[in-house]
Specification:
Blueprint lengths: L11 H12 L1 H4 L4 H8 L3 H10 L5 H11 L4 H10 L6 H19 L4 H11 L3 E4 L5 H13 L4 E3 L6 H6 L7 E6 L5 H12 L3 E6 L12 E4 L12 H17 L1 H17 L8
Parallel strand pairs: 1-2, 1-3, 3-4, 4-5
C-alpha cells in the first residue's frame, strides 16, 4: 500500500517508519509513537518528526486521514477487490496475484528455516496449534497431515478462558505453532508468554513483517496475503502448511512411510465395513 509520495527524499530513519506504516496500516491505528519507536528501534523524536516530513501535523492527523480513506470491513474488502476485476480474466488475475504473494513470501524466507521448523515439529511431544478465525482451516489441514505421521496435535481454543484449559498442560517438550494475521491478538500474547515460561518452543506464521522481530518465538514465517482494504488470500499460508508437512515427512521418512503403509493396510482390511466416502 503506497501512502507516501517521494519516499526517496526521506532520511533512513523516516524511510524505515514509512515502510512499516505502509505494510501495517491497520496496526498503526492503535499504536502510540513510543510503541512504534520501540518496535523499529528508532527514537521517539524520530517518530514525532516523521509525520511532518510526510505532510501531517502529527500522528493523530495521519490516523484520521487513514481511517477516513480506508474502511476494512470484510464486505468492503471483498467489494473493493471484486470491483477491480473482470470476470472474463478472473482466473488469470488471481493467478498473477498469487504469484506475486508467493514471490514476496519467498523473499522473506531464510535458508534453513523450513528444516528448523520441521525438526521442532518432529521432536515435539505434543504440537499445539493456535489458528483463530479464517486460519482455522489451515490448522485442520496441518493437524490431519501431521497426525498421519504419528504426531500428537492439540487445537487451542480461539478465544476466552477455554484457551487456558489446554494451554495449562503445555510443557517444555511441547511446541506451539501460532497463526497471527492482520494483528497480534491478546490470546496469542498469552500463549507466547506461557510458552516462554515453560520453555516451550513457539513458531509464528504472520502477514505482519513487524511481528517477525521482538517476540518470544523460536522461528517466525512471513506470508504475503494482500494489502489493507483488500480481500486477503490464503494461498501462501496454505503453501507453507504443505511445505511444513513435506519437510516433516522427509525428516522422518522411514517412520512416515511406515505410518502411511499401516493406514493403507487398515483401509484394505476394513474396506467392506468402512467404505471410502
Amino acid at each position: 500500500m503506497n501512502l507516501f509520495a517521494q519516499k526517496e527524499q526521506l532520511s533512513p530513519g523516516h524511510l524505515k517508519i514509512a515502510d512499516f506504516v505502509e505494510r501495517n496500516p491497520e496496526e498503526i491505528l492503535f499504536m502510540t509513537e513510543q510503541e512504534i519507536a520501540d518496535r523499529l528501534g528508532v527514537s521517539i523524536a524520530t517518530v514525532s518528526r516523521f509525520w511532518r516530513a510526510v505532510g501531517y501535523d502529527n500522528a493523530k492527523a495521519f490516523k484520521i486521514r487513514l481511517r477516513t480513506s480506508e474502511d476494512t470491513t470484510p464486505a468492503l474488502k471483498l467489494n473493493k477487490t471484486i470491483s477491480r476485476m473482470d470476470t472474463s480474466s478472473l482466473p488469470l488475475q488471481l493467478l498473477e496475484a498469487s504469484v506475486s504473494h508467493l514471490q514476496e513470501t519467498l523473499s522473506h524466507m531464510k535458508q534453513g528455516d523450513l528444516e528448523h521448523a520441521a525438526s521442532i515439529l518432529a521432536e515435539a511431544r505434543r504440537v499445539y496449534l493456535y489458528a483463530p478465525g479464517p486460519s482455522a482451516g489451515l490448522a485442520e489441514l496441518l493437524s490431519f497431515r501431521l497426525s498421519r505421521f504419528g504426531l500428537t496435535v492439540i487445537h487451542l481454543a480461539g478465544s476466552g478462558h477455554e484457551l487456558l484449559e489446554s494451554l495449562m498442560h503445555m510443557q517444555q517438550e511441547d511446541m506451539v505453532l501460532l497463526m497471527s494475521f492482520t494483528r497480534l491478538l491478546p490470546e496469542a500474547e498469552v500463549i507466547l508468554d506461557y510458552a516462554k515460561e515453560v520453555s516451550s518452543k513457539a513458531v509464528l506464521v504472520t502477514d505482519r513483517e513487524d511481528l517477525l522481530y521482538g517476540l518470544a518465538t523460536e522461528l517466525s514465517f512471513y506470508v504475503s496475503r494482500g494489502e489493507l482494504g483488500e480481500f486477503h488470500s490464503m494461498v501462501t499460508p496454505l503453501l507453507l502448511m504443505e511445505q511444513l508437512v513435506l519437510a516433516v515427512g522427509l525428516l522422518q521418512k522411514e517412520l512416515a512411510l511406515s505410518k502411511l503403509e499401516r493406514l493403507a493396510e487398515l483401509r484394505s482390511r476394513y474396506a467392506d465395513k468402512l467404505p471410502r466416502g
